[in-house]
Specification:
The complex is a heterodimer of chains A (270) and B (354). By secondary structure, chain A is mostly helical. Chain A has helices at 2-10, 13-38, 42-50, 52-85, 91-103, 106-117, 122-127, 138-162, 166-174, 179-207, 211-216, 223-234, 236-262. In chain A, helix 6 crosses helix 8 (138-162) and helix 8 (138-162) packs across helix 10 (179-207). The longest helix of chain A has 34 residues, at 52-85. The chains are: A mainly alpha (270), B alpha+beta (354). Chains A and B meet through helix 9 and helix 10 of A and strand 6 and helix 2 of B.
Chain lengths: 270, 354
C-alpha cells in the first residue's frame, strides 16, 4: 500500500508521459530562440548595435510602448477599480468590449485605427491646422500599440483590485477617509503589484506589435518592422542580428522590472 | 445621544425590520443575538457603511441617516480587525488622524498616549500580519479611538481571541467605558454581554426583541429563545453521563475534569449544563449540607451588578454566583481567594445537544 502510494506520487507513468509532453513544449519555445542566438556571432551583434537605424528603432519602440502603457494607465486603472467594485447595467458587455482587441486581427485593428487618424477623419482634420500629421507619427504608433495591448493592463488591474478586501476600504471610510483618499492610500497600494505586472504585460505586448503598427506607421520604423524589412530586402542573415539585439534589450528590461515588482512588499512605517 | 428609529433594510434574503433603539452618553450596550440575526448589519447601518431603505439614525439630535460615512464621529472595529496590511502599526494608528489633517506634533502625542494606554507602544514598527490576535485587537481599538469618536462600535471584539487576550481586552473595554466612552458591542456570547453591558439589546431575526439591564434580561426573559439564550448565567457545554449509566439517582455532567451531579433524566451525550447564579451557595469552609455538589475553587472576578454582586469562581470550570454585598463582606471575598461552592443537584438543569 505504502509502496504503491509512493509510486503514485512520483512514478505514475501517465504523469511521466505528461512531463515528456511538457518538455516538448519547452523545447518548442527555447530551441528556435536558442538557435537564433547561436547563429549570431558577437561581431555581427556589435556591428548591428552600431547601426544607427537599428538603435533608433529600438529606442523608438521602447519609448512609444512605454508611453502608451503609462498614458493609458491613468484612464485604465481607475476604470479597472470600478469594474472590480461596482455592478452596473451592461457590465458584461463592457468587459467583453475590453477583451475585444485580443480577438481582433491586428492588421484589422491597424486599419480601424488608420480610419480614425487619417487625414480625412475628424481627428486628422482637427490636427492638420496645428501642423500635426497623425499617420506615420509616434502618435500613430502609440495608438496602435495601446489598442492591442490595453486589455492586459485593465484585466490585471481589475483582478488586483478584486483581491483587495472591501472591508479594508470600508474600515478606511469609517476612519474618516474620503473615497479618493481610500483609493489612493488603501486600494491602490494593495493592488499595486497586479497593476505593475499589468503595466509590464501591456508594455511588452505593445513593444512586440507588428501588424497594427505597420499599417498606421511604417516610418518612423519600430524594431519589429525593421526586422521584417531587413528580412524581406536582405534575407534571414541580416534580420537575425537585429532580432537578437532587440530581444536582448527587451529581456533585460523585462527581467529587471520583474525583479523590481517581485520584491517582497515592504510595510510602510515612516 | 443615539436614536435609531424604525430602520428597515433588505439584503438578499435577509431583512432588518422596524428596528429602533437608543444609546445614552456613557452607556455600554451589548447587542446580543445568534449569528446571522443582523448584528453586524446594524453596526454598518449606524456607521453609514450600509444604507437603510427607510428609518432614521440620529446622533446628538442631528439626523445623520444620509450623512457621508467619513463625516460621522462613529468608529467601527471589525471582528477581524481589518488592519491595513501594507501599513505599520503606527501608520494604522495615525490613519484617522491623517484624514483629519491633524498636525504632526498633536498626532504624535495622541498616538503615544494611546499606545501606552493600550500597551502597544513596543509594536509601532511592526507589520499587522506579525501581530497576535490580542495585539491586533488592541491596535484596531487604538486606531478607532485615536480620533476620539462619539460612539464606538465593536463587532464581536472578543470572539476570535484566546482566553488570555480575551480577558485582557475585556478589561481594556471596561476601562474605556469607565473613561466615558459610549460603546455598542455586538456579540453572540452572553458572558460578554453580562460582564460588560450596562444595557443588553437582544436581537432575533433582524429585529430587537428585548432591551434592558443585564439582570432584567436575565431574570425576565421575554421569549423562550431569550430564556434559552441568556436566562441562566451558568451555561456550560460538556458531556453528560445519564443516571441510567451511572447506576445512580443523579446523572453526572463532566467538564474539564469537574463532575457535577444533576437530577435529570436526559440521555448520555454532549449538551449544556445550566445553573442559576442565585442557586450557588458560597462558604469559607467545607460545610455538610444536602447539596450533592461541593467544590473548592478560587474567586477570579467580582463584578457589581444592579441586582447584587456576581462572583466568578474557578473550580476547574467557571461558575458564576450571585451574592449580596453583605455576604461579600461577611466572607471577606476577594479576587484570588479560595472559596467553597455548593449547589443542589436538583437546581441544575441539562439541555442536551442531541
Amino acid at each position: 500500500m505504502n509502496k504503491s502510494n509512493r509510486f503514485q506520487h512520483n512514478f505514475e507513468p501517465l504523469h511521466l508521459f505528461f512531463m515528456g509532453l511538457g518538455g516538448l513544449v519547452i523545447l518548442f519555445i527555447v530551441a528556435p530562440l536558442l538557435s537564433m542566438f547561436l547563429k549570431t556571432s558577437g561581431v555581427q551583434l556589435i556591428e548591428t548595435a552600431q547601426d544607427l537605424e537599428v538603435r533608433n528603432s529600438i529606442w523608438l519602440t521602447l519609448w512609444t510602448s512605454m508611453t502608451g502603457a503609462l498614458a493609458f494607465s491613468f484612464l485604465a486603472v481607475p476604470f479597472a477599480y470600478i469594474l472590480a467594485r461596482k455592478e452596473f447595467p451592461l457590465k458584461r458587455l463592457v468587459t467583453g468590449i475590453i477583451d475585444l482587441p485580443i480577438v481582433v486581427p491586428h492588421s484589422a485593428a491597424g486599419i480601424a485605427i488608420l480610419g480614425v487618424i487619417s487625414r480625412d477623419s475628424l481627428l486628422g482634420r482637427a490636427a492638420e491646422p496645428l501642423g500635426l500629421r497623425l499617420v506615420s507619427s509616434p502618435f500613430a504608433i502609440i495608438a496602435a500599440m495601446s489598442f492591442v495591448s490595453l486589455p492586459f493592463l485593465i484585466n490585471a488591474a481589475r483582478d488586483g483590485f478584486m483581491a483587495v478586501p472591501e472591508r479594508l476600504e470600508k474600515a478606511a471610510l469609517n476612519l474618516g477617509a474620503s473615497p479618493i483618499r481610500v483609493f489612493l492610500t488603501i486600494s491602490l497600494p494593495l493592488a499595486w503589484k497586479s497593476i505593475l505586472s499589468g503595466l509590464i504585460l501591456m508594455w511588452a505586448r505593445g513593444m512586440s506589435e507588428f501588424g497594427a503598427v505597420v499599417i498606421v506607421a511604417y516610418h518612423p520604423i519600430i524594431s519589429p518592422i525593421l526586422i521584417y524589412e531587413r528580412f524581406s530586402s536582405f534575407g534571414l542573415k541580416y534580420a537575425r542580428p537585429v532580432s537578437v539585439l532587440f530581444l536582448c534589450v527587451c529581456l533585460l528590461i523585462f527581467i529587471l522590472l520583474r525583479l523590481l515588482s517581485g520584491r517582497r512588499n515592504h510595510v510602510e512605517s515612516r | 445621544m443615539l436614536k435609531v428609529d424604525n430602520i428597515h433594510l433588505t439584503l438578499g434574503n435577509f431583512t432588518i425590520s422596524d428596528l429602533s433603539m437608543t444609546a445614552e452618553e456613557g452607556e455600554y450596550i451589548v447587542v446580543l443575538g445568534m449569528s446571522g440575526v443582523g448584528k453586524t448589519v446594524l453596526l454598518e447601518v449606524l456607521s453609514g457603511l450600509q444604507k437603510c431603505d427607510r428609518g432614521t439614525v440620529c446622533l446628538d439630535g442631528t439626523d445623520i441617516t444620509h450623512h457621508k460615512i467619513q463625516r460621522r464621529p462613529i468608529r467601527l472595529v471589525y471582528q477581524d480587525q481589518a488592519l491595513f496590511p501594507h501599513l505599520s502599526v503606527q501608520k494604522n494608528l495615525e490613519f484617522g488622524l491623517r484624514c483629519q489633517k491633524t498636525p504632526r506634533p498633536v498626532m504624535n502625542s495622541i498616538v503615544k498616549t494611546l499606545s501606552e494606554q493600550l500597551k502597544i507602544d513596543h509594536l509601532q514598527n511592526r507589520a499587522p500580519d506579525t501581530l497576535s490576535g490580542g495585539e491586533a485587537q488592541r491596535v484596531a481599538l487604538g486606531r478607532a479611538m485615536a480620533t476620539n469618536p462619539r460612539l464606538l462600535l465593536l463587532d464581536e471584539p472578543l470572539s476570535a481571541l484566546d482566553p488570555q487576550s480575551r480577558s485582557e481586552i475585556q478589561m481594556l473595554l471596561r476601562n474605556l467605558h469607565r473613561d466615558g466612552q459610549t460603546i455598542i458591542h455586538v456579540t453572540h456570547d452572553y458572558e460578554e454581554a453580562v460582564s460588560l453591558a450596562t444595557r443588553i439589546v437582544l436581537m432575533e431575526n433582524g429585529t430587537i426583541v428585548q432591551t434592558g439591564s443585564p439582570s432584567e434580561v436575565f431574570r425576565n426573559p421575554k421569549s423562550r429563545f431569550v430564556a434559552r439564550f441568556v436566562g441562566v448565567r451558568n451555561f456550560i457545554p460538556g458531556e453528560l453521563t445519564s443516571a441510567e449509566e451511572t447506576r445512580n439517582e443523579t446523572a453526572s455532567f463532566a467538564r474539564n475534569g469537574v463532575r457535577i451531579a444533576i437530577m435529570c433524566d436526559a440521555g448520555s451525550g454532549p449538551g449544556h449544563f445550566m445553573l442559576r447564579s442565585e442557586d450557588i451557595i458560597l462558604s469559607n469552609h467545607a460545610v455538610e449540607t444536602s447539596a450533592l455538589n461541593r467544590f473548592e475553587g478560587t474567586i477570579t472576578d467580582i463584578i457589581p451588578t444592579s441586582r447584587g454582586i456576581e462572583a466568578v469562581i474557578d473550580i476547574g470550570i467557571r461558575l458564576s454566583a450571585m451574592v449580596t454585598r453583605r455576604s461579600v463582606q461577611q466572607l471577606s471575598m476577594a479576587v484570588g481567594k479560595p472559596i467553597f461552592v455548593s449547589f443542589k443537584a436538583t437546581a441544575c438543569r441539562f439541555i442536551s445537544n442531541i
